[in-house]
Amino acid sequence: MRYAGRVPGPPLDRFVDDIYCLSGVPRHRRVLVPPMPSAHLFINLGAPVQLSVPDPAVPSATLVDGWFMGLWTERFLLEYPARVRLVGVHFKPWGLSAFTDIPMLELRDRYVPVDVVWQRALERIRGRLGELGAAAEALDLVEQELRSRLVETRSDTLDLVTQVGTRLERSYGSVPVAALGDAAGVSGNHLTAQFKSHVGVAPKRVARIYRFARLILSVDARGPVDWTEFAHSAGYFDQAHASKEFKDFTGHTPTDYLALRRRFPAQDRFPPDAGPMPVE
Asked: Distance (Å, rounded) from C-alpha 83 to C-alpha 191?
């Protein structure tokens, strides 16, 4: 499967991590996606994608054309078709709030059709993408769409969440949230309320997800792994805390995860392999 992506320029880069295209035959049809610090836009130009969660009581969903996903706080499974063709956007945890007035609490751990967020837009966007042959042209088109929908006059509360969220991002969640509220001159309750509105979760949960992302993205399964050192460098109190977090977020112990990654190594310079992992 081929990946082409880019980080957009200002001011989109305050809200978007990257815009990307995936196309071709996937190395793994089923992948587990742990909680990561992003919301998503998927525009599917190929066969349907299946989404499910580990709880067998929750029915799976068939994702056909295009959908938004808010910040997810639990792992989920994606099953790709035999050939993939989709265009996507990774928003920063607060980023989607800059392109819609829908409270992000309503999108936490949920997916919704694109037209719920951008009314009557999906058919037009998919039609234009379907006419393009080059990935660069598709990325240009999606970037133009984002620029046209960016709210120029943003609320003070979104600016507050962006400021605090950026510090969490840069510190990988290691800065105490209370200190961030004090630095911003707001109470903890006010900061939590604004994060729930613009992100969908409290700032402590965002910090937790950034901390886990640092842990899993820094592990190189090709060599020996000192989990104690990794846990400390990622900001965990001790290895036991990091191991529990790892199990909660991935369903695997760190040892089992290493064994899986050694059987199915992540592809170099292929971001879709960085956090998600194959399902046997």
From this structure: 43
| Cβ partners under 8 Å of residue 207, min gap 6 | 168, 173, 174, 175, 177
Give me Rg for the CA atoms of the chain: 19
Q: What is the pLDDT along the chain (280 residues), one digit of tens a residue?
A: 899 999 999 999 999 999 999 999 999 999 999 999 999 999 999 999 999 988 888 889 999 999 999 999 999 999 999 999 999 999 999 999 999 989 999 999 999 999 999 999 999 999 999 888 899 999 999 999 999 999 876 688 999 999 999 999 999 998 888 999 999 999 999 999 999 999 999 999 999 999 999 888 888 888 888 888 878 887 887 888 889 999 999 999 999 998 998 898 888 778 888 888 888 6
The single residue listed with the structure tokens 């510190």 is: 171
The answer to whether the pTM exceeds 0.70 is: yes
